[in-house]
């Protein structure tokens, strides 16, 4: 650690600790006297250094910035999830904790330099009642321009105390003039389940996007509804779900596992952190279950999917999850406008395994290389290290005796990859080309019926739209070729291969010209999905998307094959993903 951070680490304890408290602890806990004496001694040292620098440094030091630099320097020595949360981020955390907030009911993202409504407003909210629609660009809030304002800052502007007024100006499709809305903020309840329905042959499908305060209750209601409609098998989609509250993960999982089963155990340094959480009720759904996960399924998602896997209650399908097995405790209002979220325990799923990635510290401290050569060398070292680690990975057994492994997240019972995007498709998504065209097209063709097909005429109009917007992209091949050319040049051999390099560059250029036609199936499929959303909202969007979702299609196939489902769940089939 450099000298700068040694100096600024004086600050956090100045906020959190007091000399009197530690003096009491010293004498009340004789066996730990040396440890607490050192804390008190260092606290006094930190306080003295902080005071001397703020009062006597050659240039004036901003006490607020200095204290935050010290906090950040101190927390940098810990795991990435122990964080000091300023007011703006604190509000986001409290929304998740409470499951509601004061606002108007919109979900927005950045599109073409303005916050844009990405899906229909939440049901029965001020935004829905006023007539704001998907695709509206918010150009001003209370007279203040929203151009190039971050999504988090715009969200802060939209939220506020229920009953307060807000004026929003939006730009909509082909409307010649902006539209102004005068709204009254209301209490908005966060919905964790974004979709629930029977999708094919009595197969239920539930999308759970978060684990907020009411996730367990929402899951109960959804399961009862689908059961009453004749559900025979269920797909629970946790892909992209970043997690949330530990209590919510337990309440969601209780809906699927038997009563009195251990769902998760937490273990920490402090005795009160050691606790086993046990299912308190009979499950709502006991039938066939497949849980979908991916690399963005984390934390509470891994508790739920891991418990279901360990208890052999259902099959996990998709790709490896994120690997976050640390429990955070929120210490509210450690200062007037901030909270402290601190890691207090690790969690272990029923087999006894920890799913936390082993190298979460190295993500912060060892992720920057000085050159391509260093990177290559370190990559080879890392590979050898990974190979060595694989030999020592600890194995565990599920309830039925299947082998599962510790560390690095949840490995699916059946690995199925989702759609893999090429550089052209990534550029279309990042620049919102398909979304933007769908908004513009529907504003001119509002008569479009739910059973529409994407015609050649639509495709030609989209091609023209890309030209009008001057859409461009860089094929991945150019990047690889540039790096290769640089390496050859440094070796002094460029002249020998230059003709071949230019021929390859020309080939990539020709392919770039044909990118639209080469990606026509992707374009057709995603135009249909986005236009379906404009006609029937989010529900129609999901129902259209699932028809071409390879992971969901595989899940349905398994649920419709009881023999395959039972064989995999019993351990007759072994997932080779770890081998």
* Approximate strand percentage: 15-25%
- Report the top-level CATH class of the largest domain: Alpha Beta
Helix content: 40-55%
Straight-line N-to-C gap? 39 Å
Plain-language structure description:
- This protein has 579 residues and is α+β, with helices and mostly antiparallel strands.
- The chain folds into four domains: 3-77, no CATH class; 100-189, Pdz3 Domain (Roll); 193-366 and 373-418 and 565-570, 2-enoyl-CoA Hydratase, Chain A, domain 1; 420-548, no CATH class.
- The chain contains 22 helices and 21 strands.
- Strand 3 (108-111) and strand 4 (114-117) form a beta hairpin.
- Mean pLDDT is 82; it is low at 3-30, 361-382 and 574-579.
Give the helices and strands, then pairings.
Layout: H1 3-8, H2 12-16, H3 19-28, H4 33-56, H5 63-75, E1 83-86, H6 87-98, E2 100-103, E3 108-111, E4 114-117, H7 126-130, E5 137-141, E6 144-145, H8 151-158, E7 165-171, E8 179-184, E9 186-189, E10 193-200, E11 203-208, H9 215-228, E12 233-237, H10 246-254, E13 262-267, E14 275-278, E15 289-293, H11 300-310, E16 315-318, E17 326-335, E18 338-348, H12 360-365, H13 372-392, E19 395-397, E20 403-405, E21 414-415, H14 423-430, H15 433-444, H16 456-468, H17 476-491, H18 494-513, H19 515-518, H20 520-545, H21 550-559, H22 562-570
Parallel strand pairs: 11-12, 12-15, 15-16, 16-21
Antiparallel strand pairs: 1-18, 2-9, 3-4, 5-6, 5-7, 7-8, 10-11, 13-14, 13-18, 17-18, 19-20
Helix pairs in contact: 3-4, 9-10, 10-11, 15-20, 17-18
């Amino acid at each position: 650690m450099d000298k700068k951070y040694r100096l600024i680490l004086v600050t956090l304890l100045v906020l959190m600790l007091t000399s009197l408290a530690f003096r009491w602890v010293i004498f009340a806990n004789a066996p730990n006297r040396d440890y607490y004496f050192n804390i008190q001694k260092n606290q006094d040292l930190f306080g003295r250094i902080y005071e001397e620098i703020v009062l006597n440094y050659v240039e004036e030091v901003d006490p607020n910035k200095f204290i935050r630099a010290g906090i950040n320097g101190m927390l940098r020595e810990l795991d990435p999830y122990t964080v000091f949360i300023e007011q703006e981020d604190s509000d986001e955390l409290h929304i998740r904790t409470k499951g509601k907030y004061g606002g108007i009911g919109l979900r927005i993202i950045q599109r073409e330099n303005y916050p844009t409504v990405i899906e229909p407003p939440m049901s029965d909210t001020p935004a829905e009642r006023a007539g704001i629609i998907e695709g509206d660009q918010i150009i001003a809030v209370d007279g203040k321009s929203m151009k190039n304002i971050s999504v988090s800052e715009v969200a802060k502007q939209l939220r506020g105390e229920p009953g307060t007024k807000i004026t929003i100006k939006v730009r909509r499709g082909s409307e010649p003039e902006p539209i102004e809305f005068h709204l009254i903020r209301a209490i908005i309840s966060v919905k964790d389940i974004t979709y629930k329905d029977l999708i094919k042959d009595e197969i239920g499908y539930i999308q759970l996007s978060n684990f907020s305060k009411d996730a367990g209750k929402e899951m109960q209601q959804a399961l009862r509804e689908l059961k009453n409609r004749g559900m025979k098998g269920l797909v629970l989609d946790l892909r992209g779900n970043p997690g949330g509250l530990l209590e919510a993960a337990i309440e969601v999982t209780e809906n699927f596992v038997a009563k009195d089963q251990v769902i998760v155990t937490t273990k920490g340094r402090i005795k009160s952190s050691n606790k086993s959480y046990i299912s308190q009720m009979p499950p709502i759904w006991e039938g066939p279950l497949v849980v979908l996960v991916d690399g963005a399924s984390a934390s509470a998602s891994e508790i739920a999917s891991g418990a279901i896997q360990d208890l052999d209650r259902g099959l996990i399908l998709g790709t490896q999850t994120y690997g976050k097995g640390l429990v955070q405790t929120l210490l509210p209002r450690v200062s007037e406008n901030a909270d402290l979220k601190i890691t207090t325990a690790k969690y272990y799923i029923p087999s006894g395994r920890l799913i936390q990635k082993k190298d979460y510290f190295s993500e912060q401290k060892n992720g920057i290389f000085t050159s391509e050569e260093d990177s290559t060398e370190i990559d080879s070292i890392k590979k050898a290290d990974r190979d060595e680690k694989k030999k020592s990975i600890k194995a565990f057994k599920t309830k039925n005796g299947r082998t599962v492994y510790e560390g690095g997240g949840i490995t699916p019972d059946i690995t199925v990859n989702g759609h893999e995007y090429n550089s052209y498709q990534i550029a279309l998504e990042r620049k919102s080309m398909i979304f933007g065209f769908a908004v513009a097209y529907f504003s001119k063709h509002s008569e479009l019926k739910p059973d529409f097909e994407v015609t050649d005429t639509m495709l030609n109009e989209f091609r023209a739209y890309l030209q009008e917007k001057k859409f461009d992209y860089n094929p991945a091949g150019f990047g690889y070729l540039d790096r290769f050319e640089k390496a050859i040049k440094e070796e002094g051999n460029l002249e020998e291969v230059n003709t071949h390099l230019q021929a390859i560059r020309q080939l990539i250029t020709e392919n770039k010209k044909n990118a639209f036609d080469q990606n026509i199936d992707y374009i057709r499929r995603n135009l249909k999905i986005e236009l379906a959303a404009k006609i029937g909202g989010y529900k129609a969007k999901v129902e259209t998307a699932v028809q071409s979702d390879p992971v969901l299609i595989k899940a349905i196939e398994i649920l419709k094959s009881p023999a395959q489902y039972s064989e995999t769940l019993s351990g007759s089939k072994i997932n080779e993903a770890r081998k």
